[in-house]
Fold this sequence. Notes:
Layout: H1 5-14, H2 21-42, H3 73-76, E1 83-84, E2 87-88
Antiparallel strand pairs: 1-2
Amino acid sequence: MSVDIATVKRVAHLARIAVSEEDAERMTGELNAILGFVEQLNEVDVSGVEPMTSVTPMAMKERADNVTDGSKAADIVANAPVTDENFFLVPKVVE
């Protein structure tokens, strides 16, 4: 795939980036070099290669998925002026 100046300007317009004529010419060469490298990577045979999350093997950390109340209700309402059974009490407002 080859990128021309019109494509660079269109992508810059879609990305809302101001690109001068000189920058567009420079970017054309840079983008073509990047796409050439990607095409080289597409030629590599990766069949049988397992996907991995890291270059070193490691086990993912897991924790038990237990539903709790957090055991913090009393700490949360400790500074409230008025509470009742770990609920905030606020004055009723009727307008």
